[in-house]
């Protein structure tokens, strides 16, 4: 299907099978799903492409199911599923509740009903990414010939991912463990939900009593490239019951790069991130001691 008009000088192709995506693609093409982030960019003056390829009718990008890959159970989320789909899905709520927390804090309901999780990820600044990092998510891409799977963490640091490759699915490992777990997502913005976050943080902890055995922490939000805080994770595990919180604050701030813009300084963002992590983890440990 092709949509084109003189009054709207953009050609929109709507393929029905994955192989057609590569057949339709050219150097001027842009793949579009919900289009919410692209619309913001265009309103800000970013030049519009002359050729769009819509994922609207691609069934391999739809659905939320559980699946097995090499003996590991995964939650499989189609890249074209909307943020609202992920927020309201029982499989997501049961196996990745922290993802529903992040989805609930993305923009307004109208945007969540249109924007997709795939678009949120491909922007590289979406609020779901920090959560997916601590959940050890993997991504599948169609490169024109076949699909391949790559860890989200690895894909994020690729300098120039091929623009012609299509994100098809997100895979979140479903871990069955006897140890207790705790996960969290926090977002600080200049205005509730409707602007980019100053900073967002996510965490996943495995613990026994008040001893943290496993820690996965990440930051994102604003123009940050989301990343794991590996040194902070080590410090938190090694600290045991005698964590030096002042030292941990310094470790967190040194563990990621930030930036200054006309509204917020780099130093403020780093301090807010450290405060969010420490307040959330200390509150959790205090509640554990009372139980």
UniProtKB/TrEMBL annotation:
Transmembrane segments: none
One family name in Pfam for this protein: CO_deh_flav_C
Signal peptide: none
Keyword Flavoprotein among record annotations: yes
Keyword Amino-acid biosynthesis attributed: no
Domain FAD-binding PCMH-type: 5-177
Molecular-function GO term, any one: FAD binding
Keywords: FAD, Flavoprotein, Oxidoreductase
Highest taxon above the source species: Bacteria
Protein name as catalogued: FAD-binding PCMH-type domain-containing protein
Species of origin: Niallia alba
């Amino acid at each position: 299907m092709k949509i084109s008009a003189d009054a709207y000088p953009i050609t929109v192709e709507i393929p029905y099978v994955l192989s057609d995506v590569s057949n339709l693609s050219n150097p001027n093409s842009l793949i579009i799903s919900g289009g919410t982030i692209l619309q913001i960019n265009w309103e800000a003056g970013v030049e519009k492409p002359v050729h769009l390829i819509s994922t609207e009718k691609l069934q391999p990008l739809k659905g939320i199911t559980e699946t097995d890959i090499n003996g590991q159970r995964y939650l499989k989320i189609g890249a074209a599923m909307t943020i609202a789909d992920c927020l309201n899905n029982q499989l997501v709520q049961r196996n990745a509740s922290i993802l529903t927390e992040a989805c609930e804090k993305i923009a307004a309901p109208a945007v969540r009903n249109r924007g997709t999780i795939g678009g949120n990820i491909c922007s590289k600044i979406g609020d779901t990414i920090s959560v997916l990092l601590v959940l050890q998510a993997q991504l599948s891409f169609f490169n024109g010939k076949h699909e391949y799977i790559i860890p989200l963490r690895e894909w994020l640091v690729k300098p120039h991912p091929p623009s012609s490759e299509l994100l098809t699915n997100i895979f979140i490992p479903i871990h069955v463990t006897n140890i207790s777990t705790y996960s969290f997502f926090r977002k600080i913005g200049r205005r509730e939900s409707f602007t980019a976050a100053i900073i967002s943080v996510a965490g996943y902890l495995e613990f026994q009593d008040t001893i943290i055995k496993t820690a996965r922490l990440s930051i994102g939000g604003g123009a940050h490239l989301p990343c794991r805080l590996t040194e902070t994770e080590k410090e938190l595990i090694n600290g045991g019951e005698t964590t030096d919180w002042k030292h941990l604050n310094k470790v967190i701030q040194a563990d990621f790069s930030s930036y200054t813009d006309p509204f917020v300084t780099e130093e403020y963002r780093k301090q807010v991130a450290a405060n969010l992590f420490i307040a959330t983890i200390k509150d959790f440990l205090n509640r554990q001691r009372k139980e």
